[in-house]
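Duplicate of #3305? Posting structure anyway:
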């Protein structure tokens, strides 16, 4: 597996998972373009601060990036929700904004450019293992990640004859500092390491996965 010679756009690149995926992709030979809502003042020149919930800003960002081969859609968010019948739409709107709107805007900006390039391309999204079915007090999150998974399958069917493969990883709890802080009573040894998840994402973006289309690949660690 390698990404030698590939230009990879990574959204959510400044997050816990994103930083690991960036490092892994670079180690595999990729030239990486990093997208996130913000970066430090000393960020590298290949880092673009962009609000992916804004379609116009997203399209403008991709127009500046130039040609690319892969998109790793890591941007998203999680929160435990209220009950399904709760009257407030705040958490519902937040989960769909972070997990669905960001993905759809990136696809609207990136897919036409990949098709125009007329060469091999790959898109890797992040679903959720738990969202394969509904979970109590997590309806907004599960629903939003379920949309990500269905979009992945639909897009794969639309693009697989265009030399572009589309897949998604389905992690359980990812071993990050924020998750450890939020769940101090849990055993992080059971969770998915960012290294293992990054390996899987990079594999799906590599030529070794060229024949894989529409896969929703569980990455569970020991959980």
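Output from current build:
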């Amino acid at each position: 597996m390698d990404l030698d010679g590939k230009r990879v756009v990574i959204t959510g690149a400044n997050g816990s998972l994103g930083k690991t995926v960036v490092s892994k992709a670079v180690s595999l030979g990729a030239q990486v373009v990093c997208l996130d809502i913000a970066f430090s003042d000393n960020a590298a020149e290949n880092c673009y601060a962009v609000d992916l919930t804004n379609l116009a800003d997203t399209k403008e960002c991709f127009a500046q990036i130039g040609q690319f081969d892969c998109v790793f859609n890591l941007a998203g968010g999680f929160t435990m929700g209220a009950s399904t019948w709760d009257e407030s739409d705040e958490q519902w709107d937040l989960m769909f904004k972070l997990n669905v709107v960001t993905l759809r805007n990136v696809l609207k900006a990136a897919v036409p450019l990949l098709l125009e390039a007329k060469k091999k391309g790959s898109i890797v999204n992040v679903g959720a293992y738990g969202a394969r079915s509904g979970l109590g007090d997590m309806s907004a999150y599960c629903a939003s990640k379920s949309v990500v998974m269905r979009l992945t399958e639909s897009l794969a069917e639309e693009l697989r004859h265009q030399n572009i493969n589309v897949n998604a990883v389905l992690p359980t709890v990812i071993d990050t500092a924020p998750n450890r802080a939020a769940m101090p009573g849990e055993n992080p040894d059971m969770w998915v390491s960012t290294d293992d998840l990054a390996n899987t994402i990079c594999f799906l973006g590599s030529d070794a996965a060229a024949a894989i289309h529409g896969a929703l690949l569980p990455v569970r660690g020991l959980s």
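Confirmed duplicate; merging threads. The chain has six helices and nine strands. The chain has one domain: 7-219.
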